[in-house]
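Aim 2, interim progress. The first record below pairs a target sequence with its structure tokens.
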Amino acid sequence: MTAVSVCIIGKNEEAHLERLFKSIDKAFEGYPHEVLFVDTGSSDNTKEVAAKYADRVIDFKWVNDFSAARNFAMDNAANDAIFFIDCDEEISYINIEEFGNVLSDEDIIGMVHVRNCYVLLGAEDAYIEKRPRICNRTKHKFEGSIGEKIVRRKENTPLVYLDVDMTVSHYGFLNIEEGSLKRVERNLPLLLKAVDDDELVKDTALYFMLGQHYALLGENKDAAAYMKKGMEECEDDDETTKLLLALGFGYTLLHMNNSDAIELVALSDKYKDSGDFICLMGIVYLRNGMVDKAMDAFAKAKTIENVIVEGANTFIPSFNMACIHELYGEMDEAMELYAECGEYEPAIERMAQLEQDY
């Protein structure tokens, strides 16, 4: 088995560390590994908590550059095979045999499923994206002050990506607590500098991150503006993140003004096969009183197998269709659709209220 160094960089993250380290211990039990924590200047008890779990805790002077911190961690790791995870995350699932197979090939960059938890229209939800988290320090390094990317150390050598049967849950977008606020305040200037740098290729992920940060602060006007700018100016070919950017833009418009969101109709043809976008359009139509169009969109979304946003082809359209049936006094149909929503909390609450009332 190829030993791995689990590398973490963090500052003032004591609130998240117990969850993170316990998930690491469980995931890698019996597998050769070390846990290295790189502290970038904590003023709380982060280093003390990390020392309870990590094999080593070392210091790095923060220089407004995430790649510099990640490369420092790799340089100081005990093993060449590296897995990175952030403080506000946990390992939810890992196929350790497959994970080990990926580590055995030095050229591979392992793509991990990241489940980003957030609040969507008042209820907790999540979207899934694949992120590069596994590499070998003899072949790879990080570049970019924020939204950093794994690149080859030797120029003009092709990158080799492989999906890994592993899921990491990320909780940083759920709320804007004190620690999250400091993280947003730290990241915003870096993101703004990156998207305004004319020498850099316009990167969809940077605009998406920037929009997310403004949305966390409740500054939806700025969030929507940067997401829209990213949709218009991005030059990369990351179609998944482009879809996430369009979805983020749409839901941000809904938070601001339902009528503004109707401009998403212009993107309907481009994303006509996306269950995520079709579900979003159903909500847009519903919020603008276009009930028939909403029902058609929700019904279509339920027929599409693969989505990014959890529930975009199941409980989200079912819940909204139930609301429409309830609006027209069709309680049996409404209850049946609410029941289809499973553990979706708004549906459970609505069913309980209807059972009480009727």
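The second target in this work package is listed in the same format:
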Amino acid sequence: MKSSFSSLGRVNDWLALRLSRVTSSGSLIPEVDGLRFLAIAAVVFHHLVSIYLPATGRVERIASSADWFAAAADSWLILAAYCGHFGVNLFFVISGFILAIPFVKRALLNQPALPLRSYYLRRVTRIEPPYLICLIVYLLIKWHDGNDITGLLPSFAASSVYLHGPIFERESAINGVAWSLEIEIQFYLIVPLLMRGFNMRDVRFRRYSLLGAIILFGLLSQLYIYPHGPKWLMISLPNFMHYFLAGFLLADLYQVEGQRLRNRPWWGDLLAIGAAMAILWVLLGFGHLYFMLPILIAALYVGCYLGRIANRLIRMEWIVITGGMCYTIYLYHVMIISQAFVRTAQFSSTARSFELDFLYQCLLICPLILIISAILFVTTEKPFMKLSLGRRA
């Protein structure tokens, strides 16, 4: 018996080592990857349900929020899955935090600015090769499925340089989730300029300025861009800037206050639960408060960092490891789900309850998502992750 447990432990350690990501500083903030897990789980859940419903004949299509709310009569899980689209916004806050950290450290310690050439080269090396590989894989699958590949080449070219939204004013025809990566790239380009705001020495003024900018961009998105803006603007940085700025605010709090507050107060768990419930509350019925969502996400993340139970959960080994693979999972999960449902939908039955039938499909498909994503992470992402770090890897 001991030998069996020892063998399982060695296998676990081997897998953990192969599937763990590497970082630019050589040190990992496990809470960040734990939060990435929450974000990618929400996105995958959203797409699992959105593909499951029409694939199994329960609804004709899921193309709008009205379709989601109409389908929700079958189960409360459908409403929960609808909220999963917000996982992308959770990622934006994390990106703002991660990109701000090295700049904030230098600004607060009066160190020389991060070399821009190094910053941009690392971003390109880290993000672009796995993304191009993914686009090629998607293009080949579409060609195999009978699509006109020559007609897709303009979309492929625009997507490869993160300009599909501005050029075609819609999501990528190659990989639909790439619209959010285009927004990330737009943000990467201006981060060094935005970080000059951390030269403000008055902490309160700096944080109030960030908070004001978050609310300002939130109101711009809610009152103008969504109801009146053109499509290209809806899938561009100005419509989501407030989420990245919330990450900046978290980076400021983490560097200045993080260690002082980190005594695992009980109110941290209450803050995490309350913020999560408030986010769902706004998403499902209080659209006039959308501009407050970045602040609620920041509160959720602070609660997860400070709370005893919440922190313990998001620091669990395989939650952290899976969160570290989120880029690969995000790039490929829609393709895996779509291809899997072609084969597994025949085992579905509308005679079963939604919850039972959907659980059955998840048991078939979710292991495939994890296994295929793990293989792709090791072969198409981690090598470039190491390359982007140079000798530090």
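The chain has a mean pLDDT of 89. This observation will shape the mutagenesis plan for the next reporting period.
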